[in-house]
Amino acid sequence: MQDKHLNIISFDIPFPANYGGVIDVFYKIKALHDLDVKIHLHCFYKTESKPAPELEKLCETVNYYPRITGWKSFLSLKPYIVKSRESKILLENLLKNDYPILFEGIHTTSLIQHPKLENRLKIYRPCNIEHHYYFHLFWASRKFIERPFFLSESIKLYFYQPKLKYANIILAITDNDKYYLQDFFPTSQVMLLPGFYPGDEPGIIPGKGDYALYHGNLSVAENAKAVRFLIKKVFSKTNYPLKIAGFNPDKQTMHLISKYPHISMIKNPNDEELIKLIQDAQMNLMFTFQSTGLKLKLLYALNYGRFCIANEKMLDGSRLHIHCLTAETPTEILALIEKVKGQEFTNKNIDERMKHLPLIYSNKKNAEIIIGLLG
Predict the structure, then answer these.
(1) Is 370 part of a structural domain of the chain?
(2) pLDDT of residue 178
């Protein structure tokens, strides 16, 4: 049998897999590698990023490209997240082979209509509907300097979106995204491909914890807003402990937390620390104010954690309602905290979750779908 090869262009270095989209990218790479696909990985990075030798174990080749950040990219008519990832060297490397190309996120699609790639199989994997996402960030942000950027980026992304018609196949991550993309690209092949996550290694610990956990990248305005909501509206009214595993929390959030002795912050945990926090918690709190894309941290919580309390926007389009306790208002959240704080999470609970979760979110099955598209 002839070897399968695939170029993957990642918007960031996908290791460590400790936030949002890179979780999907890393575990996709791992699943494809396990099925003997030869991966040629191309990663964009910021100046403070470091190469990840772990990726070389999974890929045939790994190339890194610096992002062009600053005013030059911001003033372009192209979206900043796209313009800052333009690279002539990337094009040169892609032309060294004739393998299919998987564009991870709209961020990486600056070459998707390049004439020299016209005859290549091009697969586009959207993280979400980006112009919707950035418009929600515009409303969520409390920083005056950020809001014009988010609004500008949302508008640019909307007008850039038609260029994605040059993809042969679009792999939507949720049902809602699939329906939107099918309407926007009626002549394109749009398929649902659920998110990849560490699901081949479930790690739920039976028993009972003694705290609630929220985790997320707090430099993202949406997540910081969710933390403020949970502190002010929920945990200010109970003494039940809350731990926040937060990446890059700002001073305002830290000051708010300091007012409550039963609330603590674990700054920038590594992957092992985060998994341990999820496993030991009695309940994981999954809240968002925008229903864009799939919240991959929800899959992390369900794969490693006990009880999961989430709102509808977090679950929208995920097919994961059966595994979560749903609440919208502070009163409903407080009632669920009281309900489950003393309950054991049993082996039966674990078995029920693990029977259903892999039916949709199976890394192997979803990797096989990608392989079937490569020809």
Answers:
(1) no
(2) 93
Other beta carbons less than 10 A from residue 106's beta carbon: 27
Does the structure show a pLDDT above 80 at 199? Answer: no
Residues 174 and 217 in one domain: no
- Round to whole Å and give the CA distance between 87 and 143: 31
| Of residues 233, 316, 218, 221, the one with CA closest to residue 268 | 218
CA distance 206 to 119: 52
Domain CATH number, residue 352: 3.40.50.2000
For residue 276, pLDDT over 90 is answered with yes
169 and 216 share a domain? no
Of 276, 281, 286, 338, nearest to 306 by C-alpha is 281
Largest CA distance in the chain: 63
In which domain, by residue range, is 241 found?
212-359
- Count of CA atoms in the C-beta half-sphere (13 A) of 46: 5
Are residue 238 and residue 329 in the same domain, yes or no? Answer: yes
Task: Write the CB contacts of 299 (distance below 8 Å, at least 6 apart in sequence).
Answer: 23, 195, 197, 199, 361
